[in-house]
Every structure is written in C-alpha cells, then in structure tokens.
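[agent] plan:
  1. take the single chain provided in the ticket
  2. run structure prediction with default settings
  3. attach structure tokens to the ticket
  4. add a short note for the reviewer (M.T.)
[agent] executing step 1
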Amino acid sequence: MRYLCFVAAVVLAIATRAAAFPKPEAEAPPGLSIRVEEKNPWTNLRLNNDPQTFQFAIVSDRTGGHRPGVFESAMPKLNLLQPEFVMSIGDLIEGAHSGDTDTEAQWRDFNGTVEKLEMPFFYVPGNHDLKNESALALWQKQFGRTYYHFVYRDVLLLVLNSEDPPNYTVGTLKPGHLSDEQLAWAEEVLRENAKVRWTFIFIHKPMWQYGPLANWSRMESLLGDRPRTAFAGHHHRYAVNRSGSHRYYTLATTGGGSSLAGPAAGQFDHIVWVTMTAEGPRMANLMLDGIWTDDPAEEAKEKAQAK
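[agent] step 2 finished; step 3 output follows
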C-alpha cells in the first residue's frame, strides 16, 4: 500500500510539473527561424499574427473651434503607428462663411495635411463640411458620394451621412437625418453583406442619442442583430452607449474645440486604435500627447524651438 501511495505521489508530482511547465513546441511556426530545445526562454511560439487580424485608426473632430496644429500633429504620429488605414468621423473643415473660395482654401489645406499619411484616409462628412449648398456641391465635386461602404477581410465598413437631406435652416434637423434614399442604399448593402463577421459604422452625429427624428430607428431595424460597432463625433466629448451587446462610441476630439478637461470629463485629443480579431474588435484610445517618436528628447527640443 505504501508503495502504491508513493507511486501515485510521483505521478501527481510529474503531472503538476508538466502543467506548470508546458512542453515546448516541436518546431517553430512558418516564418520564424529559432532553435527549439527541451527547455527554452520563452512562454510559447504562438505568434500573434492571425491573418484575420488587422488594425486601423480613427481620427475625430478637427473643427468646431479648431486649435491650429493639433490635427496636423497627428499625421506623423499615425505614420509611426502604421495602421492599415485611417477613418474619420466628419467635421474636417470649419466650413464656408463667405462663399466657395473660403471653402476651397480650407479643403486645400486639409487635403494637403492628410496626403502626408503613408496609408489611405477615408473621408466622412460632418455638418461643418456640408454647411451650405455650395459646400455640398464642392464635396461632391471632390469626393462624389457622401455615403459609401467597403469590405476588408470579411468586415463591412459602412460610412453614413448624418446631414441627409441637407437642411441649412438654423435649428432645423439639428440632430441630423438619414434620407429614405440613403436608407434604401444601406438596406441593399447590408443584404449583400449579410454574412460578414463584423460591421463598423462611421457617422458624424451620434443619432442613436436623438430619437426618431434622425431616422436612426429605421437604421437599427436594418442592422438587426448583426455584430457591429458604431463611431460618431460632433459633441467633442467621449461617451459610450450600449444597445444590447452592441457598443456605440461618441469620440472626443483631434484638434476640435475642447476644454481638454481630461478622461473623466471625456474631453481630450486622441486617436482611436481598433484591432479587428477573429473574436471581434478590441479598441484603445491613444492620447495624442502621449505618442512620441523614437527620440523623445530630440522631439521635445524641436517643439520648444517651434514655440
């Protein structure tokens, strides 16, 4: 009996040790050249490189009392981070005050800024961008559509126009609106992409906060129970709304008017970093003033000299 108890104890000790120290991989995964022995100084070789995973960034409101230089400073920082593409959520220019010439100059300035990116930038219209009829015509001349979609790695990215139909009367349709035409288009896109693994929605105004006037309830019906995440801006204050298992984010600013009262108040300049995984998206807020180059001392010196 004592012998059997001793054998059982030895087996248990070996099993416990094996659980605490898992067996190493027999060989390295494809693309990795490394010598694997019985004991190795690493946890595992399951590299975090699932082909379904990708990363993109989102920039928020630039205008509505914009602070010069802030949005512009995000461009080299995005190039450091190297997302696969960059999304926006509207209010890219202040908008026309005295006619087309003013608006054209603002767009030249903005387009010159985003052309510095080393990856694609996707435009989303905001109320400042479509401030009057001539502004809408200029948008259409430059970019064509005010709403569109694309699919990347079995993920649908749906860009909506919250200023549709445009109404330039002060106070009218302030929450924004989705036209019947836009909703019909969205219905077709969603039907054609019913089996995608996730849907991202980008729109300037967070119309889920505004009730039936915005026509958002109809959009919710079209979206149904598909896995999704939505991003908006406009309020210059960060907020998270939940609709069942879905999360809808209202972003802070990337240079737009803000008191910068901090995370507790939802007022800060940021870049949103989204990693799409096989299980769904993971999201992080990167504070703009927290992203530095590989030589922070030199960057600090350059900033001090620029003041």
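[agent] step 4 note for reviewer: Confidence is low (pLDDT under 50) at residues 1-20.
[agent] ticket updated
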